[in-house]
Write a structure and sequence with these properties.
Strand 11 and strand 12 form a beta hairpin. The chain is globular, with a radius of gyration of 19 Å. The strands form four sheets. Strands 3-4-14-9-10-13 form a six-stranded mixed sheet, with helices on both faces. It folds into two domains: about 160 residues, Rossmann fold (3-Layer(aba) Sandwich), CATH 3.40.50; about 220 residues, Rossmann fold. By secondary structure, it is of the alpha/beta class. It is built from 16 helices and 14 strands. The model has no long low-confidence stretch (mean pLDDT about 95). The chain starts with 14 loop residues before the first strand and ends with a helix.
Amino acid sequence: MSKFDFKEMPDKDGYFGEYGGQQIPPELIKIMNDIDDAYQEIRNTKKFQDELDYFNKYYVGRPSPIYFAQRLTDKCGGADIYLKREDLNHTGAHKINHCIGEALLAKHMGKTKILAETGAGQHGVALATACALVDIECEIHMGQVDIEKEHPNVTRMKILGAKLVPVTRGTATLKDAVDSAFEEYLKDPVNFFYAIGSVVGPHPFPMMVRDFQSIVGREAKEQFNEICGKNPDYIMACVGGGSNAMGLFTAFLDDEDVNIVGVEPAGKGLDTMDHAATLTKGSPGVIHGKKCYLLQDDNGEPLPVYSIASGLDYPGVGPQHSYLKDLERVEYVSATDQECLEAFMTLSQIEGIIPALESAHAVAHAMKLAKTLGKGKNILVNLSGRGDKDIDFVAEKLKL
C-alpha cells in the first residue's frame, strides 16, 4: 500500500491540499457548481461512458501504442526509452481526450457555444474537431505571437469551422489568450461553455480534464506491464498547465516503484527571465480562478514568461501538480530551448518521429537521464503531440 492516498482528490471544494478551489467572483461560483453537478450526474452513466468509449476507439483511435525507441536508446546508452504515442491520436495530440469529453458535457447542458484559449494550437484544433463532431459553435482565442508561430494549426481551426480571435494585448501569448477567452465567456456564462485546455482554472476543470486525460495512464500501465512484465522505473511528461502529465501520472501515483518526473520549459535559462519553469522557480499564488504555483512579481501579478514551445509558456500550473510537488511525489525538472531542439531533431532523424516542441522537452530529459541509469532500467515518456505544427518554425530557427 502506498504511503500516499490520492483517491479523494480534489476535496468537495475543489482543493488538492491547499491548491485549487474557486478563486472567482461569487456570481461565477454557481455557474461552476452547475458544471460540476452536470459532470457528476453524467460521468458514470452508461450512456455517457458508452458514447465516450465509442469516440475514443473509433474516432480518436485509442488505445495509442507504446513504442520501444531502440535507436534512441542505443544512441543515449543506458536505460531503455519507451514512448506513449499520443501523437498518433486524431488531431495529433492528447488534447482530443478531454475535448470530446467537454464537448459532450456542453451538449448535455444545452450550451450554445464553446469558448477556449489555445497556445500551440493543439487544444484549439482538438476542440474545433470535437465541436464539429457534436454540432456546437466554437470560438478560439489565440495570442498573435502564437498565431504566427503555429500557422498550420491556425488554418486547421478555420477549416474545421471555428471562429479564431487573435489576441494582441500583453505578451500576445497563452496567458493573454486565457484572459481574452474568459472575458468573452463572462458575457453569457449561462449559454456559453468555457472548455479549459488543461488541468487549470477553477474547480471543477482541473478534476474534469484530469479525469478525461487519465485514459493515457490507464492504457500505459496495462500496455507496459504486457511488454515488460512490470511497471516502468520512470515515467515523464512535459508540464505547462500539465494535462498530458496528469493524464499519464494519475494511474501510477500509488505505485512507489515508479519514479515520476515532470519537465518544465527552462527557455533561455533559469538564470534569465526568459523561461516558464513555474514549479521550479515560482511560489504559491492565484491565477485564472485557482491557487497554484505561479511565476509572479512582488504584487502577486503574473510575470511575463517564455518558452520555445507555445503550449508551455504559461506562468501558472495545475493545482494537482502544485500539491504533488509539495508532497515530493513528483520531481519537477526543466529543459532549455536548446536541449528541446536537440531532442526534436534527434528523435526525428533516428526514429522517424517528429515530436511537438512541447513533448521534446520530456524527450530531452529522458535522453539525459537514460545515460545515468544504466542497462536494465527503463523510462516511459508521454509523447504528447506530433510536431507537424512546429516544422516551419524549427526549420527557420535552425536555418534548415
